[in-house]
Amino acid sequence: MSPETYAQVSNLVIPTATVIYLLAMMAHALEWGMGRAVAVKAAVEQPAEVLVGSSSAGAQDVAVPAGAASVAGGAGGDGGSERSAAASRIGVMLTWLGFVLHFVGVLTRGLAADRVPWGNMYEFTITSSLAVAAVYLVFVHRYKLQWLGLGVTLVVAATLGLATLLLYTPAGPLVPALHSYWLVIHVSAAAISGGAFTVGALISILYLLKSRAERGVLAGGSMSESMKRLPSAEAMDGTAYKVLAFAFPLWTFGVLVAGPIWAEYAWGRYWGWDPKEVWALVTWVVYAAYLHARATAGWRGRPAAIIAIVGWLVFVFDFVGVNLLVSGLHSYSGV
């Protein structure tokens, strides 16, 4: 096929993938919406208790009675209805379909331009959102993260929609500064780690919601069916840590090692305090603080979740805000 044909295929497939992600989001929204309030009373008199979200430096969450913890815990929760579980499965299947179409769209964009498909803001956006979906699907297979589907499909669909409507740029050649194999190393590492940062932030947000629901159970309240389907707060805290521990060294290598090497090749200096470089470093510092606090001070639970969310917000500003609001050497690209 000709480059024009590849470009047409990409321009058709990317919006189609967006629609499929939206359908997946609707399926997951239906999954959550099917939940009805279920009274889960705290049985203080039970001798056995399960400590949920415990930590070592006083930054723990709550102690949930064993009976309540068995309902709240687990990958899907024992209290979920069959229809809710079916909606979850449909959501994951649609996410896989959207991912395949999304991948085809990114691939054909690269074939249309006869280069790697991340030479501008539009291309980096569709590639990084593909990385978000890929990281999610890998962790669905490994850690049963179906419960994260609503947040992931919302983020990916919104990102693709904004890219198509506001950031689209016709396929074309690279600017001279981007002609380097370091482009592949630097940007691919940034995209994958950015996808993991996004997944980690979504898990941290749900962690805060679940830990609040567990505290409500201790106060004698009820927990919605959708909250019961989530894993325990402790389990989500550990999963967020695994995701971010995977992303941090990749970001370190791709952005703070490969990036400066590429900068020296393109601009004749390794580091020049360009706004993009500064915010990439700030992102690294926040996630370094997250991992350091967990390893040395024993920060877990709510404090760690807040740092993870702040880190993601800094990453988003580095990815979007710097390019749109600040003029610098990276203004022509998304990286």
TrEMBL record:
It is a multi-pass membrane protein. Keywords: Cytochrome c-type biogenesis, Membrane, Transmembrane, Transmembrane helix. The chain crosses the membrane at residues 12-30, 90-112, 124-140, 147-169, 181-209, 243-263, 278-297, 304-326. Residues 118-330 form the Cytochrome c assembly protein domain. It is found in: Membrane. InterPro entries: Cyt_c_assembly, Cyt_c_biogenesis_CcsA, Cyt_c_biogenesis_CcsA/CcmC. Signal peptide: none annotated. PANTHER family: CYTOCHROME B_B6 PROTEIN-RELATED (PTHR30071:SF1), HEME EXPORTER PROTEIN C (PTHR30071). This is C-type cytochrome biogenesis protein CcsB. It comes from Kribbella sancticallisti.
